[in-house]
């Protein structure tokens, strides 16, 4: 696996700071901040709003009207930071002039301006979440032919990663695939599904993806239900992909066998794509065509060969036939199909070839992330 892109962490002080000695105002602002998804704001009760503590620089400085009264009227507030002057109603008549003289950007009088302040703080919380956690990786899994076992491998990868401590999202990207919730026996569990997100546009809050189905600890599943299938809208796919990178360390995207439209967009966004191929001659021929179809959208395609091999076709022969480098060679697994058909999920037997390979893949995944973090 190629080392994932490392995004620099934001400056430790890139947040909002509240400066006021007015405890009633402070309580109102902290309540709004909590509703916006911000942690408790640093609160300075001193009349001096700056400079910031050593090593920090606030993105947003919330200053109570009391800071600009009396002997402090006419003072200039710190430059280079967005400053909002806050007051509870009724505000002093000259507050706007005093705020302008001090270099403030806005005046917000509560409770009338609560909605505005809530939106501004929510934007800040989202911005910080983007910078702090937009490092999650996406791996796509696609079948080289019908019945190749891509959904089984995707579920096994996701389940193994979650069991080993990685916050993982499993996405059912095939509207006609029957639903990964059935494979995992999660069809009756509560949670959001694709039908709830099809109209999403723009940035999706990361915590929305914690409200999807949770079949196992540490594992979230975005699946189709039993409703009529729909084509995945490109806007919804882009929104979910962006939120997934912010909300989960690993996202496993189960791609349709013949991706098109938004499916190709999801494919192109993957950091790695695993092409699953049974060790059979016709499967190899079909997989080569699929690989050729996917090649313009990704250069990160690797082959996973699944046994049994009725005619003794080995992994090297499959690699040559398909033209894709090898990621793994899985031996046939007893009772796997039965367990999947019963909705019992992927077997977790210690000697399971599938489990063993998924654990190896996860070790490689963790090593790549550690390398990226050291760069």
TrEMBL record:
**Biological process terms in GO annotation:** negative regulation of cell division
Q: Which SUPFAM superfamilies match?
A: P-loop containing nucleoside triphosphate hydrolases
Domain Rv3660c-like CheY-like N-terminal, which positions?
A: 20-126
GO cellular component terms listed in the entry, alphabetical order: cytoplasmic side of plasma membrane; cytosol
Which Pfam families does the protein's record reference?
Rv3660c_N
**GO molecular function annotations of the record:** ATP binding; ATP hydrolysis activity
Per the record, the domain of life is Bacteria
Q: Which InterPro entries match?
A: P-loop_NTPase, ParA/MinD_ATPase, Rv3660c, Rv3660c_N
**Classification via PANTHER family:** SEPTUM SITE DETERMINING PROTEIN, SEPTUM SITE-DETERMINING PROTEIN MIND HOMOLOG, CHLOROPLASTIC-RELATED
Give the protein's recorded name.
Answer: Secretion/DNA translocation related CpaE-like protein
| Organism annotation | Kineococcus xinjiangensis
